[in-house]
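step: validate -> pass
step: tokenize input -> pass
step: predict -> running
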Amino acid sequence: MQNGEKMDIQVLIRKLVSYGVQTGLVPEEDVIYTTNRLLELFELDELEERDNVTMREDELEEVLKGMLDYAYEKGILKENSVVYRDLFDTKIMGMLMPRPSEVIRHFHELYEQVSPEAATDYYYKLSRDSDYIRRYRICKDMKWVAPTKYGDLDITINLSKPEKDPKAIAAAKLAKQAGYPKCLLCRENEGYAGRVNHPARQNHRIIPVTINGSQWGFQYSPYVYYNEHCIVFNSQHVPMKIEHATFCKLFDFVKQFPHYFVGSNADLPIVGGSILSHDHFQGGNHEFAMAKAPVIKEYVIPGYEDVRAGMVKWPMSVIRLQCKDKERLISAADHILMCWRSYTDKAAFIFAETNGEPHNTITPIARIRDGYFELDLVLRNNITTEEHPLGVYHPHAKLHHIKKENIGLIEVMGLAVLPSRLKSEMEQLADAILEGKDIRSNEVLEKHADWVEEFLPKYTDITKENIMDILHEEIGQVFNQVLEDAGVYKQTEEGRAAFERFVGSL
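step: predict -> pass
step: emit ->
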């Protein structure tokens, strides 16, 4: 048995090093060095003679699982739970990684000598091969497209973020609240071993970028909600802020990476994203439904006659600007932002501030299209009332059974990121509908009862074969409604008139 166990880990080490060579993570010159580091990690003194082994890319999950099981059996891994296994397998993959300076150097060589696309292709592949982006988890995410009057919305149920186990949650509570790294976006995460309340990042590499004269970092999101989902973050831990410099930075980034869009979450609670404490953008190589949505009415902004402006056909309130001259476009955007920050229209329930608390801000998204610089400005307002304590322009309470969280940049553009609980709830709901069960009497499903009663009459023929398609379709309609709730001006005659009043004030 002893020998068998030893042989297993020996084979696994050889396989992983082979994977490193195949993917380009480990140069041939580093094979012995990497092997020895892995032997040390698993408390082994030697590499036994074995036939050469190779490894397929899709075997990575299996090989890492074998290594983790071995580490737990031998007492190297203290707890056999998701959090502790994730900390340890990141440490394993860290052994295969080139130094940050090598990654940066290669990125810049490709950027200068080939193209920006070649540089990002290399870096994206590295982020996937290193298991920083856990492909085998992300492929478990449920994804579909929901047609609406505004275009095809993207829906995803996020299953790739592992649930924390109770032991890890308890350990995290007891763990010392360290201020290092200050947050998940700080550059100090690069190579960090992690702890029970902070993910390990030994397999993480960051590309430094200069944007508008300041130092930023470029990386990919470990959860890639869409193609080449990247995060661009300030090298300093400073809070989110939408201002003139934000527009300059967004366009400086797309000028350097013209195949990417980039946008920022808003800078106020409720309408901002989840991390307001660290200034950052999100971008990538993907065309969202909002980017495809047409302009339905054009405007002339006084003093900016050379900048095309128009209202976008979208559930949220979007002004699209286009211009060949990015400085003029930035100046127009800044003018709109300043006007919106101080704008009040009581008839439309838009208040610039109440009791000294500001409410108006913008979610901006920049891209280059057909030789023009293009900027979508999404008007946001975070006012709350007794009826809507989480925000008037926020998913309303009747939709919380599907989507309760903030509507950040990704949702604004037309991609719903929905909680993992919905997978099992929809499966249970499908059975309950097919069997004609009382949904209200089910503790888990009760919250969906009103919704089901609302949409069921639309369908005359519900079968085992089409029930999930129906639920997917209806979830898409809920997300459509969520975006309409989040829009400060509704797509109605009254809403468009109020939108025009604001544009008329510019």
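step: describe -> DSSP finds 16 helices and 15 strands in the chain.
step: cleanup -> pass
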